[in-house]
Amino acid sequence: MNSALIDLRPFRASAAFTRLWVGSTLGGLGGQLTLVTIMLHVFELTGSTFAVSMVAVAGLVPMIFAGLYGGMLADAFDRRIVGLTAAVFTFASTLLLAVLTWSHLETIWWLYVLSVINAAASSVSLATRSAIIPRLLPRELLASASALNGITIGVMVMVGPALAGVLVATTGYGWTYTIDVILMLAMFMGLWTLPSLRPEGTIVRPGLESLVDGWQFLKRAGNIRMQYILDIIAMTFGQPVALYPALGTVLLGGGAVTTGALTAAVAAGTFLSSLFSGRVVRYRWHGRGIQRAIQAYGASILAFGVVLLIGVWMPPASETAVNLSLIIAACIALAASGAADNISSIYRSTMMQSSVPDSIRGRLQGIFVIVVTGGPRLGALYAGTLATLTALWFPPLLGGFIVIVLVALLVRLTPRFRDYDAENPAP
What we know:
About 80% of the residues lie in helices and about 0% in strands. It is mostly helical and about 425 residues long. The protein has one domain (about 15-190, about 210-420): Growth Hormone, Chain: A, CATH 1.20.1250. Helix 7 packs antiparallel against helix 14 (about 325-355).
């Protein structure tokens, strides 16, 4: 098979994987819809970019504990039941958001609390679903499954934020949260129809012993540890999402629609890179692939900062004007960052799923989820705080440069990671 298009064999190989993929895609679409809506809601209530960044930061510690404990649960109990339980909490928090908004009882603190619950439950759900996939597919299709996951991310992040921006601008917050409640129902379908999936090998009950066991494995797993470090660097210094509401209001123009467009641009890059991932999934040197993809990500974020700096010199003609040329340029830079991040994610996810034993995969996936979802929250704090102290263009400009330099240095110092071979996976 030499096609550059995405490999669809996982769908043909496993009906259970297909149902899980469909449910995760629709549920994730609703989740992104709510995430962007909460950011816009908080910005409307406070007018503060820092307050928007705190939506992400507030859930960081609960999300870390949920990811760790959720991974332990996934290594001790039926993963289908664990995933369904987490989905119930995610659904309930979203439903309460809708009820409070329709009742005009929402406050900034309710938005924070419910976003924290949603983030924690989503961490457990994601860790569990990631640990399930290697049980549904053979190892040679795991990279292709990761590319299909890029389609999921692309669709939910591209459509969700854009739809959120349009709905908030035209119908208000209540309808936006309500649509998410409906979409979340699909997630139950994907999990409910799975077979029983108890962990294989030695089972360690959740608790300190399980946590220590996972930590001891990670200490020996240099390749897994390095990919965590590289992704934290990329997400901490190269994640400017907390700036989007302010960019649409004070720099580029367009308000909520611009916020949605910028977020959707990242997803468009993710979607396209997955759509044409046929050759990407056949590249066996995953360590080098991760390095190059993350450095390309850093370069894209740096370019985004340059576009914003130009925007300081070319502001909109009035408060209601839109600087369309700069919005397009910013979207192109962010689309490139989404493509690069997705390619890195394909290699990182495949490395995790193929080299880690099933008996400990839940715990490692829990840590992986903390890195993947916690890194952007640190990035929100970095971007929001630094922009408050300096200017909107400065965090991505500096952060992109830091990503490029640090990744080059760390990979140069770890030749075992650089030479990682997917045909001979080793953690």
